[in-house]
Amino acid sequence: MKFSPTAWAKLIYLRDAGPTEVGGFGISSADDLLYVEELVLLPQICTAVTVSFAEDAIADYFDQQIDRGLKPEQFARIWIHTHPGESPEPSPTDLDTMETSFGECDWAVMFILAREGKRYAELRWNRMQHSRMRIKTSIDYQQPFAGTDYAAWQEEYDENVVDQSQKWTDLMEPDELWEYGDLFDNPHSILEFNA
């Protein structure tokens, strides 16, 4: 599996845009279905350990991509999300999502990017015999780099990602928050606490 330099730069930017997981789909080349040319976020509610797409987000995304003339195997087979910590290993929820959401597809890929560039990619093959295997990933630096568009990437993030990572604090009394004060002084410790 390969990423275009621009898709990879965008994924790193989105991973670091907030304290939560972020999810979307890779759009691949018609000539190479494991070559990610674009990354698209869907409307989602996120925490440090979960991504939940909005109710109609996937149906709307499918309609948009079909209107562009793309086939489902180009835009709906590579599920990409981030982990805000250092581990790219899939959680039980990630594995369950692959089973329930992609179990009827001929094939699908789950790709996870964590901090420090750590990554995990798994190909799920559902033809004839069901199998799962880890696959290698790389960035295709032989291709031209279209450049960064931080403003557009941030706008896409702001429009689609609802951060619910600290929602549990709303349920605590002020004296209970005091007990966890050091977590709020260091946002990285919040992630470690929730992970």
Q: TL;DR?
A:
This is JAB domain-containing protein. This protein has 195 residues and is of the alpha/beta class.
Brief descriptors of the model:
disordered C terminus; three-stranded mixed beta sheet; single chain; 2 domains; Cytidine Deaminase, domain 2; 195 residues; 35% helix; alpha/beta; 8 helices
How would you summarize the topology of this molecule?
Elements: E1 2-3, H1 5-16, E2 23-28, E3 35-41, E4 44-46, E5 51-53, H2 57-67, H3 72-75, E6 78-82, H4 92-102, E7 107-113, E8 119-125, E9 131-134, E10 138-139, H5 150-160, E11 161-163, H6 174-179, H7 181-185, H8 187-194
Parallel strand pairs: 1-3, 1-10, 4-11, 6-7
Antiparallel strand pairs: 2-3, 2-6, 4-5, 7-8, 8-9
What does this protein structure show overall?
- By secondary structure, the protein is α/β, with parallel strands linked by helices.
- The protein folds into two domains: 2-164, Cytidine Deaminase, domain 2 (3-Layer(aba) Sandwich), CATH 3.40.140.10; 166-195, no CATH class.
- It is 35% helix and 25% strand.
- The chain has helices at residues 5-16, 57-67, 72-75, 92-102, 150-160, 174-179, 181-185, 187-194; strands at residues 2-3, 23-28, 35-41, 44-46, 51-53, 78-82, 107-113, 119-125, 131-134, 138-139, 161-163.
- The strands form two sheets. An eight-stranded mixed β-sheet has the order 9-8-7-6-2-3-1-10. A three-stranded mixed β-sheet has the order 5-4-11.
- The radius of gyration is 18 Å and the shape is globular.
- The two termini are 28 Å apart.
